[in-house]
Each structure stands twice: as structure tokens, then as C-alpha cells.
Write a structure and sequence with these properties.
Elements: E1 10-16, H1 18-21, H2 31-39, E2 47-53, H3 59-68, E3 77-80, H4 85-93, E4 97-99, E5 105-108, E6 112-113, E7 116-117, H5 119-126, H6 128-147
Parallel strand pairs: 1-2, 1-3
Antiparallel strand pairs: 4-5, 6-7
Helix pairs in contact: 5-6
């Protein structure tokens, strides 16, 4: 994809999760592809729609992606495709957000929680045994929660 502004086209960046990405459909059946086709039926203007959908992303991660990558495509319009699962995912990602001195969001690091190194996350990432133990314990606690103990 070009990173220089196509002056003959209106660039549209679409951010979202697996629904935006088009998981399970052909590339020409994604919402972005369909949108581009509909917009380009008009002979007056040219549109290029860039699909920046990533599985399991939420608005926090999409914001970071917009600032670091998608903005390089000089969009005339940015569309955020949002679904209700994004609220839960943002709740999960929030403790891992990295902020600069001004408080602006600059990244997300799953090895850090509230700005501090997360030893459990570090150990489960680099130790297969600890990862398996963590998964098994999570499964047990989930089953206990479902049963109502």
C-alpha cells in the first residue's frame, strides 16, 4: 500500500477487530472492500479504502495503531468499527497501556501492569510449564465461578 498521498483519491482508513478484518469471508466480501466498491460506482470521485482490522483489537489498540501506522496513509476519513465486545477488551487492555510524560497513550505492553513489570506475565510468557499451570488454574477457577461456589 502506498504511503504517499494519492491526490486523485479520497483515502479512507477503517480500524476495527476481526469483524473489520473480515475473518471468515473472502477479501472481496469484507466491509472495507464492499464500501470501496460502492463508493467507486460514482465516476466523479475515486476512493481507496484501507482495511486496518486486526483480530482482538479494541479502541485503545486501534488508537495506538492509528497514531503509529494508519496515519501514514494520509486519510481523508477514519472510520472506527465498534462492537460491544470492544468495551470488555478495552477493560482488559487498560492496565497494560504505556503513557508518555504528558499522559498520552503511546503503546501497550502485556509484560507491564499499571506501569510496573508484571512478573507473572513475564514467567508465563517465557516458561512453558508455568504457562500450562496458569492455564489449568484459570480453567479451574472459571469452572468454580460457573458452579457458583
Amino acid at each position: 500500500m502506498p504511503k504517499t498521498k494519492n491526490i486523485n483519491a479520497n483515502n479512507i482508513v477503517v480500524l476495527g477487530d476481526s469483524f473489520t478484518f473480515g475473518l471468515g469471508v473472502k477479501s472481496d466480501e469484507t466491509a472495507c472492500s464492499v464500501l470501496e466498491g460502492l463508493l467507486n460506482k460514482s465516476k466523479n470521485d475515486r476512493y481507496e479504502v484501507y482495511n486496518f482490522g486486526v483480530s482482538s483489537y479494541s479502541p485503545i489498540l486501534e488508537y495506538i495503531y492509528l497514531k503509529k501506522e494508519a496515519i501514514k496513509y494520509h486519510p481523508n476519513l477514519v472510520i472506527l468499527m465498534f462492537d460491544l465486545a470492544d468495551v470488555q477488551e478495552d477493560y482488559f487492555y487498560e492496565p497494560h497501556i504505556i503513557r508518555d510524560a504528558k499522559g498520552e497513550i503511546v503503546g501497550c505492553d502485556f509484560l507491564r501492569t499499571n506501569g510496573k513489570l508484571d512478573i507473572k506475565a513475564l514467567c508465563t510468557k517465557y516458561s512453558r510449564l508455568l504457562y500450562k499451570i496458569d492455564q489449568k488454574l484459570s480453567q479451574i477457577f472459571w469452572e468454580i465461578k460457573i458452579l457458583g461456589f
